[in-house]
Write a structure and sequence with these properties.
The chain is α/β, with parallel strands linked by helices and 520 residues long. Helices cover 47% and strands 9% of the residues. It has 22 helices and ten strands. The strands form two sheets. The chain has a six-stranded parallel sheet with strand order 1-10-7-4-2-3, with helices on both faces. Strands 8-5-6-9 form a four-stranded mixed sheet. A hairpin with a 4-residue loop joins strand 5 and strand 6. Helix 9 runs parallel beside helix 10. The longest helix has 23 residues. The chain is elongated and about 95 Å long. The N and C termini lie far apart (82 Å). It binds iron/sulfur cluster. The site of iron/sulfur cluster has 14 residues, from helix 14.
């Protein structure tokens, strides 16, 4: 049997945040050319599809505004809406459980699986269960969890960690997936090719047997409606639909921020989500259920409402926007940092721009030395994530806000390289004279270097070049170039009579400091 390509991410102690700081982890993944190629191809394909289908809708911006407004309203009324949701789920024969943290949620789910007499469960993609490390917990309790979403299945069989919110196996190409199937999926022939159809058929055969024998399914929830007690899952393969309808018992683990006020709100999110995530006009499978229906579908339904740091995030007026996220992954697909480092560098089930603002808030920013505090710095602040987000989460503003909190929350901190570099920049930028001297120094250095890029500077410049290249310095600053131009034009206008409209008779350009009629 062929070997599974290596590079599974390390097994985390806490799925919300594991491993070294972002810059340390990114250094490792940046060396992996294959990983970067896989990521570039995949994110660009999804990105182009998203742009094409969002451009089709004349009211796309109005939809984004509506999504943002509904989410903001839901967060403002969260306790009231959750109680309404609980009442309506219960009224329709379901049971609601409240979990403060991962340990409590894992305990509740394990108890429910045991009560159903099951030793194995099927799962439909759920970030909430990844966040709490449910699979690992169940395994420790002697219960086997089978992922049924194709990408999740690949990640599980490879002993890997997800690298993307929506396409967890985005970092693997078709050859690698074929090798994972051949070596890890029981009954798969050695002659299996890397054709998508062949891979899908192999997975289908493997999963069909699991669906038919499972008594318990565990799912996530994309949305839940307080007004009716309805829960919704959207997916592309139909494997989720099998999980949600075949087993006798259905357990859904849902972050408390997924609640929406009214059924009507669904129309907004069922347009925003598929176009932003997979670039499709509609989700191939949208399953909604309200409690239980005798003789149809699961006969027992449990909804576990998970906090796990969400009320902590809600308390932050700027950062709470992260709770508006509908997990479409559009921000990951446009992020230049994510495209180069991949999801594992973020060391969390929530990678990319949304992970950089969500994870630190779920876990807290109290310890600036913790790897979590490095996440808000994992961005160039280019703003592409804000432009792409279907619910207009202002990620750049939240990043800056969380950077400030990471540096200042909890009193004085041990000096860091970034802090020292920023302190030096503040000294220079707060004085016009110092800034001019710095510009002259930079221009002199630029002339000495002759336009060459600088990779390593001595201290204190090394604080900068340790994590970034220094771009080639121009031989003249903008201010210097502008002053020289003004002097040149003034000389020319002094020597040559000006045209009636104030333009230089030779260059045709208007003299600086004059209006269209040649007046100052
Ligand atoms: S932050 Fe916005 S773009 Fe990113 S995953 Fe969430 S909803 Fe999608």
């Amino acid at each position: 049997m062929p070997a599974v390509p290596p590079k599974p991410a390390a097994e985390p102690l806490d799925p919300l945040r594991w491993g070294p700081t972002f810059p340390e982890a990114a250094r490792g993944t940046l060396d992996d050319a294959q990983l970067r190629t896989n990521l570039r191809r995949a994110t660009r394909t999804i990105r182009d599809k998203r742009l094409a289908v969002t451009a089709e809708l004349p009211d796309w911006e109005a939809l984004r505004d509506a999504g943002a407004a509904i989410k903001a309203d839901a967060m403002d009324r969260l306790p009231e809406l959750l109680e309404q949701l609980e009442a309506n789920v219960t009224a329709h024969g379901g049971t609601v459980h409240w979990a403060r943290d991962a340990a409590e949620a894992n305990r509740i789910v394990t108890g429910l699986v045991r009560a159903a007499g099951a030793r194995e469960v099927v799962k439909v993609k759920s970030m909430a269960t990844q966040e709490i490390g449910l699979n690992e917990h169940l395994e420790a309790e002697g219960i086997t969890a089978h992922e049924t979403d194709l990408a999740e299945l690949i990640v599980q069989l490879a002993g890997d960690r997800p690298s993307h919110i929506l396409v967890p196996a985005i970092h693997r190409n078709r050859d690698e997936i074929r090798d994972v199937f051949r070596s890890q999926m029981p009954g798969v022939p050695d002659r299996l090719t890397n054709e998508p159809a062949a891979l899908a058929m192999a997975a289908r055969e493997h999963l069909r047997a699991l669906f038919l024998r499972a008594d318990v399914a565990i799912s996530g929830a994309n949305l839940a409606i307080a007004e009716t007690g309805t829960v919704a899952v959207v997916e592309s393969e139909g494997n989720g639909r099998m999980c949600l309808t075949l087993p006798r018992t259905l357990v859904t683990v849902m972050g408390i921020e997924k609640v929406l006020p009214t059924f009507r709100d669904l129309e907004v999110f069922l347009q925003l989500l598929p176009r932003s995530s997979t670039g499709e006009r509609m989700n191939p499978y949208t399953t909604t259920w309200t409690g239980v229906t005798p003789g149809d579908g699961p006969q027992e339904f449990h909804l576990v409402l998970l906090d796990n740091g969400r009320t902590r995030a809600l308390a932050d007026d700027v950062g709470r926007q992260a709770l508006h996220c509908i997990r479409c992954s559009a921000c990951l697909n446009v992020c230049p940092v994510y495209e180069r480092t991949g999801g594992h560098a973020y060391g969390s089930v929530y990678p990319g721009p949304i992970g950089a603002i969500l994870t630190p808030q779920l876990l807290g920013l109290d310890d600036a030395d913790a790897a979590t505090a490095s996440l808000p710095f994992a961005s160039t602040l280019c703003g592409a994530c804000y432009d792409a987000c279907p619910v207009k989460i202002d990620i750049p503003t939240a990043l800056v806000h969380l950077r400030d909190r990471a540096l200042h929350d909890g009193g004085p901190r041990r000096p860091t390289a970034a802090g020292a570099a920023m302190g030096a920049a503040a000294v220079v930028l707060s004085s016009g004279r110092r800034f001019r001297w710095a510009l002259r120094g930079a221009a002199l250095a630029g002339r000495l270097l002759g336009g060459r890029r600088v990779r390593r500077l001595p201290w204190p410049g090394s604080l900068w070049t340790a994590s970034r290249d220094l771009p080639a310095l121009p031989a003249r600053s903008f201010r210097g170039a502008w002053a020289a131009r003004v002097a040149r034009v003034s000389r020319a206008t002094r020597d040559t009579p000006a045209a009636p409209d104030g333009r230089d008779p030779r260059s045709g350009e208007r003299s600086p400091g004059t209006d269209g009629r040649g007046r100052p």
